[in-house]
Amino acid sequence: MNQDDTDAEPAARLHATCNTKEHNADNRHIQAVASRLAYPRMLSSAVVAELAGWSRRTLYNRIRDGVFPAAIVTGPRTRAWLESDVLAFIEAQRLQRDERMHRRAAQRAAEQTNGAGHD
């Protein structure tokens, strides 16, 4: 038996064990996640404005006012945003909204409790 035969045998066994539906599904999932991490998506101003629910003018006003992150320069006349930055901004806004709603609900409950004792 030469060296090539001994190297081929483990490779053939490994290939046989990796050829299951579950393993292939896991590999596809891992590749999908890895491709998103390796190549972050860049979004145009039109897409960013649509995701945020704003007009493009409002988007640029929010950037000017320091409310929204500035774009990354991707070329001499082009700018884009990382999808992850845009989604993080939207999530932060959602969390702030939820916090305000909880504070208001607690405030109303406290007012009702205090008002109920005066009847």
Quick structural overview:
This protein has 119 residues and is mostly helical.
Walk me through what this model shows:
This protein has 119 residues and is mainly alpha-helical. Helix content is 71%, strand content 7%. It has helices at residues 3-17, 21-38, 45-52, 56-64, 83-116, and strands at residues 42-43, 72-73, 79-82. Strand 2 and strand 3 form a beta hairpin. The longest helix is centred in the C-terminal third of the chain and has 34 residues, at 83-116. The radius of gyration is 27 Å and the shape is flat. 5% of the residues are buried.
Strand content: 5-15%
Specify the number of helices: 5
User: Strand pairing plus helix content: what structural class?
Assistant: mainly alpha
* Largest beta-sheet characterization: 3 strands, antiparallel
Strand order of the largest sheet: 1-3-2
- How much helical structure, as a percent, in the residues? over 70%
What's the helix-strand series? HHEHHEEH
Q: Based on CA inertia axes, which overall geometry fits?
A: flat
**Mean of all residue-level pLDDT scores:** 81
Poorly predicted segments: none
What's the total number of strands? 3
Instruction: Quote the distance from N terminus to C terminus.
Output: 98 Å
Q: Cα-atom Rg, whole angstroms?
A: 27 Å
